[in-house]
Amino acid sequence: MNLSEYNLNINSDDAELIDAFKDGEKNAFNFLVRKYQKRVYWIIRKMVLDHDDADDITQEVFLKLYKSLDEFRGESKFFTYVYKIAINYSLNHLNKNKKIINRKVDIENVYLISPERRADEIMNDTEKTKMLEEAIECLPEQQRAVFNMRYYDNLTYEEISGILNKSVGGMKANYFHAIKKIEKFLRCHKKFEVIENN
Amino acid sequence: MKTTFSKEELIHSLPDFISDNIDDKDLISQIENEINTNSGFKFEFDELRKTFLFLNSASLDGPQDSYFNNLPVRINEKINGKHVNPGFIEKLGLLWKILIPALSIIIIAVILYNIFGDKDEESKVTHDSNNQKVIEKNQTDNKIEPPPQNDLVTPDDKEKNTTDLPKDKPVKQGNRNKKHNRTIYETKEENNLSEEKVTIIQGKVYADLINDPDETNGNEAEEDVLYIEDGEEDNLEEEFLKLTPEQQKEIIDNLNNTQI
């Protein structure tokens, strides 16, 4: 059967696309790419923070997916499977490049982006983006992954524990500590007053 | 049945409580109760709430929409092997593209160095078949120190002279650093006169003789420097004795005039 006989499109069910792919219709994979490319990109982007790195890893993830899709048994959701590959590649990238993931927030070395600014001034979007990147960069690898999966992707703790092969209670604690680290980062940069006034 | 949660479970659930991500009503009510009754717990709640205010208002910069239009194309290219990492053979081919030019440059550099590098001047002495010692010199840049005065010898002091070369071998002057004791004869022709000036020097060659401007310019030398290995003085003596008395006297007079 060719693609037209499968009557497939980007909105087709994952299982149908995967079955068509396994039957030899390799073009079905293109629909899977178009369906999940943004989500995969942002999973990776929130982990590695750099766009170029995220671009490279995204391509690698889909290449890996193409090579391993024949072996996918459907025991978990397809996107959970994809998510797991993306997170693992991101964690490997962070480990490999020794990114600053355990930046210690030194309360004594507090600095302001602009010390002359008044506490009631509003942060612009660029400053918020920069602050967010730096805050996420403070998080250790696993806390960063849990934070992104819970806060941005709204995965359950059970799904997160399945992806990372950790306990549910541990994932909950990881999430709490990730938020606390971001709180400490913002406090050390004296941004809480600015946040309250926004 | 109402579930009782520990203080740790309650505080770990605060982020989800703030994000409205809790479905368990018992948990929600216990958290609310703790906030109302526990000032420390309330403080934690307030601080986390500020953090979420910031997180909700901030976002990362994303790529342009066109990025996602051509991402599938690039992924396809990668799948089809257009951007596959080169294999070993391809890498070897790439290596040769770099290696061959590099080797060429190194070889050219070595050749140029050999051509334009410093050369040592060599002096050669060839033996004349008619018992005349002819010395040929090549250009050299090396200075040669004059021999010490106490090294000057007369033909009678042949006992002090030793040589490594057999007597019948041609005289050669090679390396100026050789320790051979040599007897050097210098002849000089002036204005077609038959007068010969003979200088017997033992040891190292005088630098000024070697570096004679006439010699260095390739002109015919007015002074010919003869190098004779020690041990061959016996031949000279025999030849001298073969001469007529008049010839012997003439040679002796010349020697006396040269103040040797």
Topology diagram in text:
The complex is a heterodimer of chains A (198) and B (260).
Chain A: H1 3-6, H2 14-22, H3 28-48, H4 51-68, H5 78-97, H6 125-137, H7 141-152, H8 157-164, H9 168-188, H10 192-197
Helix pairs in contact in A: 2-3, 3-4, 3-5, 4-5, 7-9, 8-9
Chain B: H1 7-12, H2 14-18, H3 25-37, H4 39-57, H5 65-79, H6 88-116, E1 123-127, E2 133-137, E3 182-188, E4 201-202, H7 207-210, H8 213-216, E5 223-229, H9 233-242, H10 245-258
Antiparallel strand pairs in B: 1-2, 3-4, 3-5
Please characterize this protein's 3D structure.
The complex is a heterodimer of chains A (198) and B (260). Chain A is elongated, with a radius of gyration of 20 Å. Mean pLDDT of chain A is 83; it is low at 101-120. Chain A is mainly alpha-helical and 198 residues long. The N and C termini of chain A lie far apart (58 Å). In chain A, 67% of the residues lie in helices and 0% in strands. Chain B contains ten helices and five strands, in the order ααααααββββααβαα. In chain B, a hairpin with a 5-residue loop joins strand 1 (123-127) and strand 2 (133-137). Residues 151-228 of chain B have low confidence and may be disordered. In chain B, the strands form two sheets. Chain B has a three-stranded antiparallel beta sheet, with no helix packed on it. Chain B is mainly alpha-helical and 260 residues long. Chain B has helices spanning 7-12, 14-18, 25-37, 39-57, 65-79, 88-116, 207-210, 213-216, 233-242, 245-258, and strands at residues 123-127, 133-137, 182-188, 201-202, 223-229. The chains are: A mainly alpha (198), B mainly alpha (260). Chains A and B meet through helix 3, helix 4, helix 6, helix 9 and helix 10 of A and helix 2, helix 4 and helix 5 of B.
